[in-house]
Amino acid sequence: MQVAARLRALAAGGLLMVASAASAAGSLAVHPEDRLAVAVAAMQDGAYADASRRLEALVRDEPNFRLAQLLFGHVLAMRSGARIGSPLADDEDPKLRDLLAEYRQRGNTLRALPAAGLVPATLLKLSADIRHALVVDLGKGRAYLLEQDDGKLRVVRNLYAGIGRSGFGKQSEGDLRTPIGIYRINGWLPDEQLPPLYGAGALPLNYPNSWDRALGRTGSGIWLHGVPPETYVRAPRSSEGCVTFSNADLLSLKRTVAIGSTPVVLAEQVDWIAPAALQDDRAQLVKAIEQWRGDWSALDTEAYLEHYAADFRTDDGMDKDTFSDYKRRVNAGKQRVQIGIGDLSLFAYPGESGLVVAQFLQNYVSDNFASSSRKDQYWRRQPDGQWRIVREMNR
Fold it and tell me: What pTM, to 2 d.p., does this model score?
């Protein structure tokens, strides 16, 4: 594929963060990720003079972009015509091995790009008040920032992301793995409060979340954070379990996300599908949640309890039988109950089969009590095809 065709593919897939692929000649208005991708495309086409020009401009503008420096050396070696060994062939040096791992990961960029119009299968429904979602494909080391507009999602950023040294699937404190799950951002820690390792700052996540706690996962301090000032990005697997971004990308995310509400999906792999393919599961779950709400509001306790699976447990350890006895006693003392649900979001839970977490605002009013709380409710598809609740926790 020629360079121009690669540019069109990158732009169509949402990788180029400018209005026109033609402007990717080296302007600072173009993201360094895009500039590197275009230079690599030129290298792969054998257009070494073009690649050399692009890489020279990139390393001038981003002198700490070590992979770009390495590729520039490779292109110069190829253009010399002499018997000079390519730096890409030397994998004995540990630092070079890290850069080669980054190069191979970035080499999959085109394959990592979703086709236009597709959405992550995990995002079944976002509440109307959620403007953005961050979805990280841990296996590919790519992070996708999606924007919601009138109920429709589109990718607006596609970023390089580093993960834990031991990969993903965190289970315990100190295992150096990045967790898999649905999280939210708890706050912002500026660079002056952190060691240089964290770069421009950090966005802490709420690991362990309610599902992690239910499964006994331990550990803490999982953040989205930057990198030391002397480098552009870190190696693909180099953190203690956090997700790392270039400092510029982290600051861009910080300006975009909403603390406490922007969902962050950490997935082993992201499946991209047509939005219409989500309609059936979304409709079934919305209907099931509405029936659950309606049965509770009607004080039809037995119908209400049918929405809970046999293996249901509460956050404080009640099993289905204990929970059922408790609910029967509570409802027996009520004359009137009104349940309202708002801000409903639905996520197919990554790493789990047939599990969806419903996140919503629950308003409870009875004849002698009223409360409002944020709830995480986990629904699993049962062998009979019905959706039933397996966990339920207030945030």
Answer: 0.90
